[in-house]
């Protein structure tokens, strides 16, 4: 492939050809390491039956790899200056479409219905780090049919996604990710694998969607409210944290009663609870209002 990207020389050539100016506000750090690209493609387990959504293709480096491995790739890029470049670098692939839009405003469910008959897709991306959480949470909360999400994120964010109780990285993001998926950190990636170099370390993480939920939750919104309130006031006990939150309609006595039923101390902190315990607490509280 004449135009094959993924090494610094070809990337610089394309950038110069189009006088491209990097936009910091869009989190533009392009991959220039073929080993990392191979690793991402391998760990995403892509087959010729797969429909891939790529978020932020940049100049199309990973898109070329995806197009060769998958049946169809749709790449969503916000920066209109990259569109003519993508038309050039992807010109020899007939299984790629590029959408020039902000991923946060795109109706991904409609896209999956139209392009993949509503069947589960795989998301693969070197994400713009400034919107990692809204992108991931948007995919989960909108119930986009997905098998897996394989993404490059900031190293600390990958560690938070995979963290368990007892770790300083454990928090609302760990619980949200683990409620929907099984996280697995595939590789750590140093700044010199990107152009320009980011100021932080990066990791590739694969989130495999649970086929069957690992916890039973009567009211997901309530459980996530409990989780958010507990970690908003991390240093407080769970009971005080929940009691101070305006969107939790339960008083101290009700919360303590539930903790007792769960054989947990009334002085426990939220950060000590597992996903199963948050689920159980929300189910017990829900019983009061039913
Ligand atoms: N995939 C390319 C690579 O690996 O070389 C580029 C990755 S770069 C870290 C992130 C890309 O996401 C950039 O191309 C940026 O313009 C794009 N981007 C930033 N915000 C976006 C948004 N809200 N919607 C879609 N794309 C976005």
TrEMBL record:
Gene Ontology molecular function, alphabetical: 16S rRNA (adenine(1518)-N(6)/adenine(1519)-N(6))-dimethyltransferase activity; RNA binding
Coiled coil: none
EC number(s) given by UniProt: 2.1.1.182
Residues binding S-adenosyl-L-methionine, per UniProt: 29, 31, 56, 77, 102, 126
Keywords: Cytoplasm, Methyltransferase, RNA-binding, rRNA processing, S-adenosyl-L-methionine, Transferase
Cellular localization per UniProt: Cytoplasm
Catalytic activity, reaction form: adenosine(1518)/adenosine(1519) in 16S rRNA + 4 S-adenosyl-L-methionine = N(6)-dimethyladenosine(1518)/N(6)-dimethyladenosine(1519) in 16S rRNA + 4 S-adenosyl-L-homocysteine + 4 H(+)
Enzyme class: transferase
Residue ranges constituting the Ribosomal RNA adenine methylase transferase N-terminal domain according to the UniProt record: 36-211
Lineage: superkingdom: Bacteria
Family annotation (InterPro entries): KsgA/Erm, rRNA_Ade_diMease-like_C, rRNA_Ade_Mease_Trfase_CS, rRNA_Ade_methylase_Trfase_N, rRNA_adenine_dimethylase, SAM-dependent_MTases_sf
NCBIfam families per UniProt: ksgA
Family: Belongs to the class I-like SAM-binding methyltransferase superfamily. rRNA adenine N(6)-methyltransferase family. RsmA subfamily.
PANTHER family linked: DIMETHYLADENOSINE TRANSFERASE (PTHR11727), DIMETHYLADENOSINE TRANSFERASE-RELATED (PTHR11727:SF7)
Function statement: Specifically dimethylates two adjacent adenosines (A1518 and A1519) in the loop of a conserved hairpin near the 3'-end of 16S rRNA in the 30S particle. May play a critical role in biogenesis of 30S subunits.
Protein name: Ribosomal RNA small subunit methyltransferase A
